[in-house]
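TODO from last week: model Prevent host death protein, Phd antitoxin.
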Amino acid sequence: PILLTQRGHGAGVLVHPTQWNEIVELLASYQDILITKDRAQEAQSDPSVMRPISDLRTLLESDGLLDE
């Protein structure tokens, strides 16, 4: 990365596209992990949020999000 400055202050960062894409993918993975942990904690504290997998499949199929 290259730090771009204007009048001695940071103004931007220049990053190679490949490195940028790797950073974006890594961030997305971390976000997925945090969401998973949040959902697991939610399920432990309130089991009523849990739904049978068959209900979820039906819902996803009806929304056209799951093809089987």
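Done. Helices lie at 17-45, 53-62.
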